[in-house]
Amino acid sequence: MRTPWIAPAVTLLVLINIISCASAPKPYLVSQNPPLQFSGNAVGYTLKKMVIEGQSIPFNLWYPSDSEQKKFFYDFGGSVDSARDKVATQLAVDGKVKNGSFPLIALSHGATGCGIGLAFYAEQFVRAGFVVVAPDYPDEVVACTSDPADYPLPRSRDAALRKLKTLKFLRYLAGAGLNPQNPEDRFKAREKFGYRPKILRQAVQTLLNEKQTWHIDSSKIGLAGHSFGAWTSLLVGGLEQNRTFGHLVAAIAYISGPVRGYPFLPSEIAGIDKPLFFIFGSSEIEPSGQQPKRRDQSLFFDSAKKQKYLTEIINTSHFSFSTGVRHQYESIAEYLSNDPARLVTAQLLTDFFMAHLTGNATSLQALQKKRAGVADYLF
Prior knowledge:
The protein is of the alpha/beta class. 32% of the residues lie in helices and 22% in strands. The chain has a single domain (8-22, 43-378), classed as 3-Layer(aba) Sandwich (Rossmann fold). The protein has helices spanning 8-18, 119-127, 159-177, 186-192, 195-209, 211-214, 228-239, 266-270, 293-301, 332-337, 340-357, 361-367, and strands at 42-52, 55-65, 70-75, 86-93, 102-108, 131-135, 216-226, 249-255, 276-281, 308-313, 374-378. Strands 3-4-1-2-6-5-7-8-9-10-11 form an 11-stranded mixed sheet, with helices on both faces. Helix 1 packs across helix 3 (159-177) and helix 5 crosses helix 7.
């Protein structure tokens, strides 16, 4: 979340609009472009579960497959309304794993989200030759779930009460929760939300333990997260790089993550010894008169010592980096075919991980120049 210094009234209006799930649903956006013809690996998919401290946690797994893809619906679990729970795609569900050795990317969703909310990234990565895992984080407030059959969303009889609870949680994260003004208070978030790094570590470790089954190259791991998930990814892959598998993480993408206050110290960023990619949108909500990139650059980009990238995506808000609370399109393919911002973000991330997990020279060269859809780019 990136809005702690905005006037309270403005923040209130924005967040109420975000969580207004009980209002009449808008129609899906009409496709303006022909569907993209995706090349590369067929996308296999399965939903797995793990138990942490007695709590069962679902996590999504996408992988290169030799099996035939068929129509499949991601079910978000009634996060908006029954008519718009599902988003269509083409997957080889429980399909055969393709022969080979594939780097692993772990995706972390933002507040109120779930793992399948980042599916358009995951499928793009698999086509390029990665295995992808995305767990669900049991945050205080959730608006979707990757497994509605076994993990239904908690329902409140009072829709207004549910909205207020969500609003309170989001405002807390946007302010003192993830953006403390006192640098020492950053440790409070790491303690309070310690379940997130724990879940991410166990999801990755579970797959490393099964690396022969999923044909994973355990020496090449990338982490990427959006919003609250960006905080989670940087904490596990960067600040915990000497813990568990942290030393195996070769690259981290921080997508529209906490940036006001002190979620991290510049000295902590400077100590991360791996490539970092910081991404934000040109339409992100900012205090009046302040340019979106200033804090991203001063806190993150200028502090990082290794290979680093900072990009501003044109016509992109904080919520454009996932499928959003309200599902805008009927299919995952349309999120890329009809949304230039999401497409260029997925392409940039693919090149980033191709370059720094596989050593692909073409992708590295592509990262060395600004491309269409990008307003500002530093590297």
